[in-house]
């Protein structure tokens, strides 16, 4: 076996006993820092203390324990470089073939303390340097930072006595990523502590390619925030031979949120990232009408928990069908024309979100607004919160409908709502309207009164527009004014 000497210094000791035991029983000399040495000795695995190996004790309260030319030289020496070989002989440096190390994420540490001195003491120096050195010299040294990779290294060493170059490269890349993320979290922690947030860091996990981005001429890669929950974690593409587009993913995200938000059965249609029409707890008659009308539309995504609805739309011209139904035979899905996605409902909440538009990036806090509403009104209010200003959402009994979003003004949003309702053979009559911007014209008041709307939900009014709310109150319309604006942007 090509591994003769290894350094192990880890915070996360998951799977460590298996790796260390394998190395020891294959004659590998294991060099450890105090904490790791104690852990492995208790497991019956003999190791050499790093202080004994380099002939120098840990000093400065543990700040200096693994910074030494014997360690760095043994890791960074190239096997095919004669000058390196000469230096190693002259200075009695032994080659090190493997470095195993990890450290706690700085986010974990920052949750425990905000004390500056304590935080500074937690910054890893030596172990961090050893890992980067091993990754730099990956052709000669195996760098291991992730306990999940221990077994594949063991398997390769058992099979052929070495770790293939391709795997060494992969492991080295993981080290560089881990150390860069570690540095970024240190910077973020101290930026917040020193109130000097000039830069921000986010890391993304690449999930794969999309069919295309905003239009068929654009390529796109699908990513999610690293280490954070996403609706994509609870989504299974049953038509795995097809890839979604960005537009489809936006519709899926919206419908996933709404379906997860309610415990009732949900039936909905979204297109271009806009919730268009749907029901909470639909009746059989409403399902039949929905299918009949929706079948004539092209594009967009339909959500239903009813297998019959999904099956009725198997030859439709929609982009996708979503359901929580668990298909026993996934092979039958291959014959569906739309893509089919199975969801595991989960309410996901974020404290902040990013809005990206070309080279412009905005980061904003997400503030929850809790209202006492009926289940259908709650869904309608979620639609208003998700959509861009201006939009109007209509709720009547178990029906939820939205005509458009990002309209020029509230009047146009109301017209778009009426046009959409007409498409679905519904009249704007009674029920509740949710605006995501203040009412600011008599035309809106007239439309509300003419349609006999019973309830209006709006954000706080602007100066000079109080008169419109007063008119509605005098006419007996129930008003619910929230404490703040709630649309996304």
From TrEMBL:
GO terms for molecular function: IMP cyclohydrolase activity; phosphoribosylaminoimidazolecarboxamide formyltransferase activity. One of its GO terms (cellular component) is cytosol. Gene3D superfamilies: Methylglyoxal synthase-like domain (3.40.50.1380). Keywords: Hydrolase, Multifunctional enzyme, Purine biosynthesis, Transferase. The lineage of its organism: Bacteria, Thermotogati, Thermotogota, Thermotogae, Petrotogales. This is Phosphoribosylaminoimidazolecarboxamide formyltransferase/IMP cyclohydrolase. Pfam families: AICARFT_IMPCHas, MGS. The keyword Hydrolase applies. It comes from Petrotoga sibirica. One of its GO terms (biological process) is 'de novo' IMP biosynthetic process. Residues 1-145 form the MGS-like domain.
């Amino acid at each position: 076996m090509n591994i003769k000497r290894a350094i192990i210094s880890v915070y996360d000791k998951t799977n460590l006993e298996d790796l260390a035991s394998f190395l020891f029983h294959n004659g590998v000399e294991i060099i450890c820092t105090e904490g790791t040495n104690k852990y492995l000795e208790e497991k019956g695995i003999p190791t050499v203390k790093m202080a004994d190996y380099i002939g120098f004790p840990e000093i400065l309260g543990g700040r200096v324990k693994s910074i030494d030319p014997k360690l760095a030289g043994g890791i960074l020496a190239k096997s095919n470089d004669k000058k390196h070989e000469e230096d190693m002989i002259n200075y009695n440096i032994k080659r090190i073939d493997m470095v195993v190390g990890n450290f706690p994420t700085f986010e974990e540490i920052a949750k425990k303390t905000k004390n500056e001195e304590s935080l500074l003491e937690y910054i890893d120096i030596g172990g961090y340097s050893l890992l980067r050195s091993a990754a730099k010299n990956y052709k000669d040294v195996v760098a291991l930072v992730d306990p999940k990779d221990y077994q594949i290294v063991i398997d390769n060493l058992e099979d052929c006595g070495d770790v293939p170059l391709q795997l060494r490269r992969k492991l080295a890349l993981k080290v560089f990523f881990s150390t860069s993320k570690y540095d970024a979290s240190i910077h973020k922690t101290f930026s917040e502590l020193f109130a000097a947030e000039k830069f921000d860091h986010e890391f993304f996990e690449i999930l794969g390619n999309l069919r295309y981005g905003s239009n068929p001429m654009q390529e796109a890669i699908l990513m999610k925030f690293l280490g954070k929950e996403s609706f994509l974690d609870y989504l299974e593409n049953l038509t795995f031979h097809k890839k979604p587009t960005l537009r489809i993913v936006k519709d899926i995200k919206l419908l996933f949120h709404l379906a997860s938000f309610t415990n009732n059965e949900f039936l909905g249609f979204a297109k271009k990232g806009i919730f268009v029409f749907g029901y909470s707890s639909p009746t059989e008659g409403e399902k039949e009408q929905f299918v009949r009308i929706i079948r004539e539309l092209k594009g967009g995504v339909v959500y239903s928990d009813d297998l019959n609805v999904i099956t009725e739309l198997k030859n439709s011209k929609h982009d996708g069908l979503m359901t929580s139904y668990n298909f026993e035979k996934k092979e039958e899905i291959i014959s569906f024309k739309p893509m089919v996605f199975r969801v595991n409902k989960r309410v996901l909440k974020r404290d902040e979100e990013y809005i990206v538009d070309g080279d412009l990036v905005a980061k904003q806090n997400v503030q929850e607004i809790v209202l006492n509403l009926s289940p259908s009104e709650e869904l309608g209010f979620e639609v208003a919160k998700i959509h861009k200003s201006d939009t109007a959402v209509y709720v009547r009994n178990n029906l939820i409908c939205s005509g458009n979003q990002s309209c020029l003004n509230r009047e146009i949003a109301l017209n778009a709502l009426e046009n959409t309702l007409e498409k679905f053979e519904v009249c704007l009559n009674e029920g509740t309207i949710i605006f995501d911007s203040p009412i600011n014209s008599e035309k809106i008041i007239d439309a509300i009164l003419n349609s006999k709307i019973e309830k209006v939900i709006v954000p706080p009014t602007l100066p000079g527009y109080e008169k419109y709310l007063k008119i509605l109150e005098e006419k007996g319309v129930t008003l619910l004014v929230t404490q703040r604006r709630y649309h996304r942007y």
